[in-house]
Amino acid sequence: MTNDSLIQTLSTLLPDAQVKMGTQYVEAILPLEKHHEFMLKLKNTPELAFDYMFCLTGADFADYLMVIYHLESTTHNHIMVAKVKTADRVNPVVDSVADIWPTADPNENEAFDLLGIKFNNHPEPRRLFLDDDWGFPLRKDYQDDVHIVSR
Question: What are the domain boundaries of the chain?
Answer without folding.
Answer: 3-95
